[in-house]
Amino acid sequence: MNSTKIKNILLEADYSEIKRVFKEAKTVKQSTLGHDIYLRGLIELSNICTKDCLYCGIRKSNHSVNRYLMTKDEIIASAMFAFEKGFGSIVLQSGERDDENFVGFIENIVEEINYLTSQQLRITLSLGEQTTETYKRWFNSGAHRYLLRIETSNESLYNKIHPTNHSYGNRVNCLSVLKEIGFQLGTGVMIGLPYQTITDLVNDILFFKEMDIDMIGMGPFIEHSHTPLFGQPVYIANSHSQLLELSLKMIAATRIFLPKINIAATTALQALDPLGREKGINAGANVIMPNISPPQYREDYLLYEDKPCVNDLANDCFDCVIKRIEFTGQKVALFSSGDSLTFTSKKGNIT
Ligand code: 5AD
Ligand code: FES
């Protein structure tokens, strides 16, 4: 599949043809990876952030946010909940901080979770741009996956949605460093950003291949009224339903282009449609990331507004996710690490 084919998928307007492409992507997923859907328990451990991304609800200039940092005990309790439920892996996500207190805190928590679970719970970090030294420390403490979205592979668009002290080059460099250290590497983009074009999205998928990415998390951009990007013109989708359809087409095109990769059906899909994540699975995604953060923190971690599951208890989220996945005809792979096939099939990567 080349870039013209990707573009055709993204531009397809005929409903029955779109349905056919989604089915093809799901078939590719099933024949490459089977019926399994992997769970990652998402722990949003802090909304304190030193960055000021123009799209993000928890950017440092949003003074209406009530800031929190979960305690070590709370984070470990959430991780153990995931472990006992058979999630196989967790994601520790937070606003971006690079001070020694934070770096050491994470290092310590990763070590402790590995100790308590005899390294049977895969730990993914989603903690933004850091120095090579920090990435190495976190890797050595036992975190072996890292998610860092490129947000968009178009450098000039990247500059439009970030403050001037952010650098696209540094973001790409972080991805290369993470790969070099040996992390299983995840990235992703937002779909329907102001000023974004279909060509940008095609290039995003080519970027995933070029950077040898193992895991993808991408979802619709949902504007937040307390951010500078609120009300900016979006060219490629006029409504929530168009944006959902475009996001699903991105999942399908990525699956067909990169069959072995892990692709998440993200929570942002569900923000657009109560069945958004199931639709993501039906378009070729194979990972779901239920939010297992303690309920009292959830309404303070609003990257975008109308985020779903804010009032749910972690256990409810679990039960509801299992039912929702079965509804798609797939099966939840409990107690499975869910490593990306792109990663495990590389020589020397033993998990
Ligand atoms: N809409 C959708 N996704 C968002 N993110 C941040 N803000 C928004 C928003 N307004 C995504 C970014 C980030 C991830 C953690 O959440 O892609 O990398
Ligand atoms: Fe920091 Fe979004 S700007 S997490």
Verbal overview:
It is a single chain. It contains 14 helices and 11 strands. The protein is of the alpha/beta class. The protein has one domain: Aldolase class I (TIM Barrel, Alpha-Beta Barrel), CATH 3.20.20.70. Strands 1, 2, 3, 4, 5, 6, 7, 8, 9, 10 and 11 form an 11-stranded parallel sheet that branches. Helix 2 (15-33) packs across helix 9 (240-257), helix 3 runs parallel beside helix 4 (100-116) and helix 5 (132-140) packs parallel to helix 7. The longest helix has 19 residues, at 15-33. It is globular. It starts with a helix and ends in a 7-residue tail after the last helix. The model has no long low-confidence stretch (mean pLDDT 93). FE2/S2 (inorganic) cluster (FES) binds at residues 49, 51, 53, 56, 58-59, 95-96.
Q: In terms of topology, how is this protein built?
A:
Blueprint (H helix, E strand, L loop, with lengths): L2 H9 L3 H19 L2 E4 L1 E6 L25 H14 L3 E6 L5 H17 L5 E5 L5 H9 L4 E3 L7 H6 L7 H14 L2 E4 L2 E2 L6 H13 L4 E6 L19 H18 L4 E4 L1 H6 L3 H7 L4 E2 L6 H4 L15 H14 L3 E2 L8 H4 L7
Helix pairs in contact: 1-8, 2-9, 3-4, 5-7
This protein binds 5'-deoxyadenosine (5AD) and FE2/S2 (inorganic) cluster.
5'-deoxyadenosine binds next to loops.
What is the number of domains?
1
CATH superfamily: Aldolase class I
From the 3D coordinates, which CATH architecture would you assign? Answer: Alpha-Beta Barrel
**Shape annotation:** globular
Q: How many strand segments?
A: 11
Bound molecules: 5'-deoxyadenosine, FE2/S2 (inorganic) cluster
List unreliable stretches of 5+ residues. none
Q: How much of the residues is beta strand, in percent?
A: 5-15%
Most strands sheet: 11 strands, parallel
Question: Structural class of the helix and strand makeup?
Answer: alpha/beta
* Estimated radius of gyration: 19 Å
**CATH topology call:** TIM Barrel
Counted by DSSP, the helix tally is: 14
Order of helices and strands: HHEEHEHEHEHHEEHEHEHHEHHEH
Oligomer state equals single chain
CATH class: Alpha Beta
Please tell me the overall pLDDT. Answer: 93
- What distance separates the N and C termini? 30 Å
Helix content estimate:
40-55%
